[in-house]
Amino acid sequence: MKTIGILGGGQLGRMLALAGFPLDLRFRFMDPAADAPVDLISWRIVADYTDENALVRITEMADAITYEFENVPVAAARFLAARVPVFPPPAALEAAQDRFVEKSFLQSLGIPTPPFAEVSSRDDLERAVTAIGLPAVLKTRRMGYDGKGQVVLRTLADLDAAWSAIGMAPAILEGFVDFDRELAVLAVRGRDGHIVIYPLVWNTHRAGILRISIAPAPLISPALQAMAEGYMRRVLTELDYVGMLAIELFQVGDGLLANEMAPRVHNSGHWTIEGAETSQFENHLRAVVGLPLGAAHARGHSAMLNLIGGAPASEAVLAVPGAHLHLYGKSPRPGRKIGHITLRADDPTALATGLDALRPLVDASAEG
Ligand code: AMP
Questions:
Q1: CA dihedral angle for residue 347, residue 351, residue 354, residue 355, rounded to 10 degrees
Q2: CB of 112 closer than 8 Å to CB of 254
Q3: Are residues 281 and 205 in the same domain?
C-alpha cells in the first residue's frame, strides 16, 4: 500500500482517488478551500500551498506527491521535491503556468504556436498589435483558465478597454486563429521513460469553457495523429516528465498549432474512464508510483459532455443507452463545472443518436 499526496482537492483529485483505490493506493489531499469535492472520499489538509508546515505534513504522510491543480506555486513544488518524489516535475509546472514562458518553450522545441508577443505595458500592447495584427487575443500570463483573463481585440478602438479588462496585468497578445477545430492530445510517461499516447480528442468550447469532447476525434489522418504524437513526445522527453500531460491544439488545415499544455489529468480526458482501455486517472497514478502503464486505445466511440452550472435529472441522463453520469458534489454556480456525462457507443451512428438525446438535456440545465 502506498500513499499519494495530492495538491488540489477538486474533481480531478476525486477522480484520481476513485481510480487509485482499486490499486490499493491511499490519498492525502491539500487544498485551501473551505470545502472540496474530495472531502466525501478522503482526508484533507486545509491549508494554503505556501504553508510550509502543511507542506511538511503532507510529505510525512506520502510516498510520492502529485497535483491536480496547475497553479500550485512552483516554490511549493520544489520545497516538496527536496523531500519526496514529486511528479510531474516542478519544471513542468513552471513551463505551463505562464503563457509567455509556455509558448516560448513550445516554440523552442519546434512546435508551432499562434503568433504571440509579450505585453507588459500599454505601449507594448500597441507594438504587439502592430506586429501581430487584428483580430488578436490578449491573455494574462498567469492564472488564466476556462477563458478567464482573456479578451478578443477586433479593432484599434478595443485596446484601452481590453488592457483595463485584464487588469493591466503582465500579458501576451496572440494572433486570433481562425481554426477548423480544436483538438487535444493526452499522454502519459512512466518513471522509466515509457510513453503511451491517447487518440486525438475533438473539443468544442463555449464562452471559453469546454462543453463537449468527442473521442477519438473523427476524420483524423494518420499523419495528423503522428504530428500530434511527435509534439507530445518532444515535450515529455524535454521535461523528463512523469504522469499525464495534455496539450490543447488548434487544427488549421493539415497543420496543428499548440495553444496550451496542462501538466495534469485534463477535462478532455474524462472520456477515458469508460471510453479507453485505461483511464487517464489510473495511468497518471501508475506513472507516479512506478507501475507499468496501461494501453490508451479507445473502446468504441465516446462523447463527454460537461455539466456547467447545473445538471439534468439523473433519471433522464441514465435513461439514454450508453450514458454514464459523474457528479462532483459541488454546489451549482453559473460557469462552474459540477459534473460530466460520458456517452459510450460501439459505432458513430449510435454515438450521434445518444448525443441527440443528451445535448438538449445538458443545454437546458446549463448556466453560464
Ligand atoms: P485558453 O484559456 O487559452 O485555453 O483559451 C480558451 C479558448 O479560447 C480556447 O479553447 C479557444 O476556443 C479560444 N482561444 C484561445 N486562444 C485563441 C486564439 N489565439 N485564437 C482563437 N481562439 C482562441
A1: -170
A2: no
A3: yes
- 16 falls within a domain: yes
Q: Which residues pair with 245 in a beta bridge?
A: 187
Specify the ligand 1 atom closest to the Cα of 144: 2
Residues 195 and 341 in one domain: yes
pLDDT digits (tens, 9 = 90+) for 29-80: 999 999 999 999 998 999 999 999 999 999 999 999 999 998 899 999 999 9
Q: How far is the CA of 142 from the centre of ligand 1 (A)?
A: 15
Determine the atom of ligand 1 nearest the C-alpha atom of 203.
10
Domain coverage including residue 216:
181-365
143, part of any domain: yes
Question: Is 279:21 a contact under the CB 8 Å cutoff?
Answer: no
Amino acid at 180: D
Residue 209 lies in a domain: yes
Which of 146, 181, 259, 260, when mutated, tests ligand 1's pocket best, judged by the most ligand atoms within 8 Å of its CB? 259
- Ligand 1 neighbours, Cβ below 6 Å, are 114, 137, 144-145, 147, 174, 176-177, 182, 205, 208, 248, 259-260
Pocket test for ligand 1, best of 113, 129, 132, 137 (most atoms within 8 A of CB): 137
Q: What is the C-alpha separation between 362 and 368, in angstroms, rounded?
A: 12
- Among the three residues 65, 86, 107, which one is the final residue of a domain in this structure? 86
pLDDT tens for each residue of 129-176:
999 999 999 999 998 666 678 999 999 999 999 999 999 999 999 999
Q: Domain of 226: which CATH number?
A: 3.30.470.20
Are residues 359 and 310 part of one domain?
Answer: yes
Give the tens place of pLDDT for each residue, 236-255: 999 999 999 999 999 999 99
Q: Tell whether 271 and 140 lie within a shared domain.
A: no
How many domains would you assign to the chain? 3
Distance (Å) of CA 332 to CA 146, 298, 364: 17, 31, 14
